Here is the input.
Amino acid sequence: MTGQRPSKIVCVGRNYLEHARELGNEVPAEPLIFLKPPSSLIDGGESIVLPPQSAQVEFEGEIGVVVGQRIRHATEASAIEAIAGIVAINDVTARDLQRKDGQWTRAKGFDTFCAVGKPRVGAMTAAELTALEVVTRVNGEKRQHGKAADMAFSIPFLVSYISAIMTLEPGDLIATGTPAGVGRLDEGDIVEVEVVGVSMVTNPVAAPSV
Ligand code: ZN
Here is the structure.
């Protein structure tokens, strides 16, 4: 995980055009954000547990940002300076419940629904952030491949935008949205999200437990 338990996990929805379209949506005019609870966090190697309330649990491989400084109303330049590291995140989602509920707290909030790899710590330039890529594999087969350059809203813009809503604290995580190719997870699958060359998280998928 990230060393320091986050006070919050802020996620971005519909930040890649092709993913928005595959679920029948458009990219919003402003970033669409939601929260996952810290209780959803697991490390690499821990099981993603399928909850009995859902019949359609899906992976969402994402580029994650670890916040390193307390920031509020940050400019894009100071947002970049406040990034402590980049991390692979699997924003696991109960897609059926997401559709059913309208808002996403239940669909995104189950225990084990936020798998986070070890971060690569260190300062990054805007150009390095734009060059990041994320790949998701299920049972070794590539299912998603997204590039930060294709995001509707860039990583510095997102960090700045979120910091104008809520104070970001050291250790907070931002999941920057998933590219096209999301799909189902079943018991026994092995799912792996890699921010290419930077961070990776691999998890088995386990049967429902009550
Ligand atoms: Zn997501």
